[in-house]
Structures are given as structure tokens and as C-alpha cells.
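Let us begin with a simple case.
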Amino acid sequence: MGKNAESRIIGYLMKNKSIKSVVIVFLLLFGIQTNAQGKINQFDLNGKRTGVWKKHYTNNNIRYEGEFKSGKEIGIFKYYSAVSSKHPVIIKTFTANNDIATVKFYTVEGVLESTGEMQGKNRIGKWLYFQPDGKTLMIEENYENGVLNGEFKSYYKTGKITEFLNYNNGKLHGNTKRYADNGVLLDDLNYKEGKLEGLAKYYDINGQLIYTGNYENDEKVGEWEYYNNGKKENVNKLKQ
């Protein structure tokens, strides 16, 4: 917009005494000023952020940079640590038709830590977490509205599974299994709303059963069988 056109619009609005007009004049003046400084950090006529925005920390390092349209983030946003602006610690990729963003978290050195989707501030869907090399998968989990829901898997650096868990509304629910680094099953448990419930089996590093029994409301109940070298040698009957 040329200066003459801006002057005519501002003059017209100043004759109009409404608060809205005064606000628009302010925003226009602010837009003119920022336009002269490189067309960043601007507002549109509705007072919403538009175009390229870039903010800094008090030490002048970049805090974030990205583009807005009618107050909504679009495209790629980069967020930095106050320590360094060499590599973003968070990269969010926004879409125009919803409020879901694909997110990647990095170390200050630029090594990928995790990736997944967010809706607002809530994690949703599948999230992946990586070993310190930024490539080898370490954890795979699922979210619903920011809460763990569904399967959870963790892995050794070798790629073999460490744990297999199930969550419901943020609590352990259903079958869980834990493995040694050689792939041997160590325990096979069941949960209900975060508490041990039902049959449980515990194994040694060689995969032989050590003991087994049932839980009820996180407490051992009924008969518990104990094994030595795979052979049953004792039964402990608990009071109910």
C-alpha cells in the first residue's frame, strides 16, 4: 500500500470516532513501521498476526520464526533455545485446514529426539522417541487428547523390544510384557485401570518360570506357585 493511500485511509478513519477505528489506525501505523523494518511482525486490519513473525530472547537469540495468516500459524515454525540459534529445538509444520501440527523435537546440537502430532498443546496419535543417535527407535507410544492411550513399546539399542504395555486414559490397562536384552520374556502381567489384576507370570533370564499367581486390586490373592529350574517346588496359598 502506498503512503498516499495509507494517509487517505487513516484520515478517513480518524474522522470516525469509534474505538474500532482508532484501533485500526494504530494497527495501520504499526504495520507501516514494521513494513519499513522488513515486513515482519505485522497485524492485519482485524488485529490478527499476519505474514512472517520473528521473536527474540533478551540476549537477542531467536526465540521463534514462522508465518501467520489471519492469526493462524501456517507452514513451518521453528523454535529455538535461548542458549543457541544454530538449530531449532522444535519444528512444527502446520496445515491450513485444521489445528493439527506435525512436531519434531531436537537437542540443541540438532539431533532428533522425538516426533509426532499435536493438536494445540496436546499430543495425539503415534509418537516416536529416539536413542541419542537420533535414528534408532527407543519408544513408540500413542496419545489421545494429550493422554497415553493404546499400545506402548520400548526398545533396546539393538532394536529388540524391552516392554510392551497397554494404556487406557493414561493408566496401565490390559496385558503387559517385559523382555531381557536377549529377547527372553521376563514377566507377563495384566492391569486394570493402573492396578495389577488377574494372572501374572515371572521368568528368569533363561526364560524358565519362577513363580505365578493372581492379583486382585494390586494385591496377591489365591495360590501362588514357585518353581526351581522349571519344576514346581512350592505352593503358597494366601488368605483372602
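The second case is a distinct protein. As before, the sequence precedes its C-alpha cells.
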Amino acid sequence: MNKLINALNIIGICGLLACHSKTVEKNESGKLSPVADQTVTPQKQNNRPEHVAQLTFVEYLDDGDYFQILANKGDSTFLFINETDTTRNLNRGDKIQVAWKNGIVTVPGDNEAEMPAKLILSIKKTGDGPVTAFRNGNKLKYTWSTDEEFTSSYLKKVYLLTEYYLTQTKNSLLQAAIKNRQELTYSIESAERNGQHYRLIGIAPVGPNGSNIVQWLYVGEESGQIYEYDLPEDRLIAFN
């Protein structure tokens, strides 16, 4: 009889430990990263944990299983599941206020794995960024070789990259063209350099005598990283 009682006690203790372990795991999966914890304001609404932060919009990411929004604040990067912003009218650099909760999403596949995610509850624009200001007075034209086969989504991606570059460029000729509301155009072509594949973008102001390219950009095919081409030194300079 004593042995039976002891066995039941051990089973009960193990059961309590297992419940505690599951509770700890659930709490840990809902925590923000240490960096993100320092940059957000926890709130509570209807007994639901909620987080709010003032961020800078980077881009919409729609190529995966879920629509997502990428934003940052200082050196911290935030990736959200986006089922809220259906207008899709944010431009890179716009200031936004995001409220979200921590949740779980299912990754499609054989195992239907679950992963922690930040789920947007609300998002609103609080200020214009440089791209929005640029669009108010400038529109770009572009051309590409008929030998190239670019999808409309890729052409849009290149347009956004070029547009953002022009809002940050230090090239004096481009700065003058933008200031004077001069028409700008760019070409797109494939290029290879030191065994790496790039998209080569040539940006040119349009004048009375036509257009002359004043800045070449190399865009990594896989990374999407932009590089300015330094002609005198024949080198690529990373642009961030």
C-alpha cells in the first residue's frame, strides 16, 4: 500500500512540473526580443496584451505565405503580419504608429509548424517620409532592353529602389535635377561583375539635348543591396 501511495505522489508531482513547464514555454514564446522591448510601450486593452511603437516604414513584403510589413526604429527591425493595412499607401521612410499583439502563425508545409509572430491590430501614418515628398513633384520614366524579361512586380521593386535612392543621393547633378523639377529617366539591364550577378541601373536627367547617365547603380540579384558605382576608382560602394 505504501508503495502505491508513493507512486501516486510521484505521478502527481510530475504532472504539476509538466504543467509548469508548458506555462513557461507559452510565456516565453510570447515575449518580445530584448531589443524590441526597449523601444515599445506595453498597453492593455480588454485584458489583451498590446504593444505600441512609433516606427519608420520600410516596405511591404508580399512574397511569402503571409502579407508582412517591415519597419524599423533606430537599429531595431520589426516584422509584422499585416492583415490590417489594405490601402497599401505607405512609402519608404514614412512615420507610422503600430499597435500589435504577440501571437502564433502556422507555416504551411508537411509539419504545419507554428511560429511566434507580431500581429498588427492597427496602423496609422503620422508623418511623410522623403519618398512621399519626392513623389509630390517628380515622376520617373524607365526603359529596358527587349532582350530582358522582367516581371511587373520586379519592375515595381526596381522603381521603388531607384526612387528611394534619389531621395538620399549625394550626386550633385541629380540633386540639381531634382531641385529644378527636371525629368529623370533610368535604364535597367543585367550585368556581371567579379562573378556576381547584378541589375545595372543608369540614372539620367533629361535635357534639351537628350539624356546622359550621371549615376550607375548595381543592385544585387539575390540580396537586393544597392551599390553606387565609383567610376574613377572602378569600385562599388554600398548604399544604405
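The chain has two domains: 32-129, 137-239. Residues 137-239 form one domain.
Keep these points in mind for the review questions at the end of the chapter.
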